UniProtKB/TrEMBL annotation:
Transmembrane segments: 28-50
Coiled coil: 55-102
InterPro entries according to UniProt: PilO, Transl_elong_EF1B/ribsomal_bS6
Protein species of origin: Halomonas gemina
Protein name (Swiss-Prot/TrEMBL): Type 4a pilus biogenesis protein PilO
Amino acid sequence: MSMKDEWRRLRDMDWGEMDIKESGGWPFLLQLICCVLVLVLTLAGMYWYLAAPKAEVLDQARAEEERLIRDYRSKAAQAARLDVMREEMAVLEERMGVLREMLPTGAEVPSLIDNISEAAISNQLSIEFIRLRSPVSQEFYVEQPFDIRVQGDYHRIAEFLATVASLPRIVTQHDLMLEPTEGTGGQQLQLSMLARTYSYRQPDEEAP
């Protein structure tokens, strides 16, 4: 039977009277279309139930692979710089050690006050008071503020400030106030200031 006859049989079919039980008598083209449709639906169902979940797992595995490769490259770059980083760390630790040596311990603060008093006396200044305030605890150090008031002429006061700034232990100077002393005709000045020194505190050390 020719293809033209098959098309004619397909057009002349009464679709309302089709019975699946009589599919063997259907036109060849209709049987072929039904077979192709069943095959497509079967393949789609197999993909949906079998291949699709595995494809999702595969995508996740590929994403994980890319992440691991990035992590590996990052760690490899860090490992390549490990010797340089160790050298830099050693330099930083050495600098930190030098800075720590410049910070007085709590027991050395009275000795530091004595050094400041000696600096004032050596510059022929009159000491009104050097008075400690309460210490202030920070994360890695303890700040020890103290008030200083001395009297003398301008140049000796300047020498005193330079001496305090050059002490082996770190002393910072704040809130400097310079006023003429009464009854001296402006020849004598009074210096008032807040000074601070710092002592290193271990992280596990209790705050004072």
